[in-house]
Write a structure and sequence with these properties.
This protein is α+β, with helices and mostly antiparallel strands. It folds into two domains: 50 residues, no CATH class; 96 residues, tt1808, chain A (Alpha-Beta Complex). The protein has three helices and eleven strands. The strands form three sheets. Strands 6-7-8-9-10-11 form a six-stranded mixed sheet, with helices on both faces. Strands 3-4-5 form a three-stranded antiparallel sheet, with helices on one face. Strands 1-2 form a two-stranded antiparallel ribbon. Strand 6 and strand 7 form a beta hairpin. The longest helix is centred in the middle third of the chain and has 15 residues. It starts with a strand and ends with a helix.
């Protein structure tokens, strides 16, 4: 059910209807450019179109920074990679201080049901990145799994690990 979300941009208060997500409330910078709403992405350091998927991604980024202590400079969003000669684009990756990827996060719009195909999408990115954690979320439901290194085994986690837990 949509809720009212208040934000300030261009010096005026605006009311934006978005779905309340299963994350703590977040403060985001939103602006209106030619009747198109944009949100500031702290990872890409620019305004991007405010789609339902982007709404989820920005909540997740805020949660990772403010509650799980992931440094901003250790994350990347919406970057390309090659998987089996195919060009793909991941939603979010968290890196270890040594530069190796730790977690892939796949974000979907709240209206999108998370299915096995969503896991397969994230797992496909893992063919190239070899991460320890996969996270899929639509902002309402979150599934995080830990991948056992060099095996096809994995374990569902009850919560998203903190950055210090991920680095172990």
């Amino acid at each position: 059910m949509p809720v009212l979300f208040f934000s300030t941009f261009t010096g005026e208060e605006q009311i934006i209807k978005m779905v309340r997500l299963n994350f703590p409330d977040v403060e985001v910078k939103i602006r209106n450019v030619n009747e198109v709403l944009e949100v500031f992405d702290p990872l890409r350091k620019r305004f991007v179109s405010l789609t339902p998927e982007e709404w989820v991604r920005q909540h997740l980024i805020s949660y990772l920074i403010n509650h799980l202590e992931v440094p901003v400079h250790m994350m990347a969003s919406e970057r390309g990679l090659v998987v089996n000669t195919l060009k793909k684009r991941f939603d979010l990756v968290i890196y270890h201080p040594n530069g190796n990827p730790l977690m892939i996060a796949e974000c979907k719009a709240p209206s999108v049901k998370l299915t096995e195909d969503t896991f397969y999408q994230a797992a496909g990115y893992n063919l190239a990145l070899k991460v320890k954690y996969l996270l899929i979320t639509n902002g309402l439901v979150h599934h995080c799994i830990q991948v056992e290194e060099n095996t096809p085994n994995f374990q569902f986690l009850n919560s998203i690990p903190s950055y210090s837990e991920m680095k172990r």
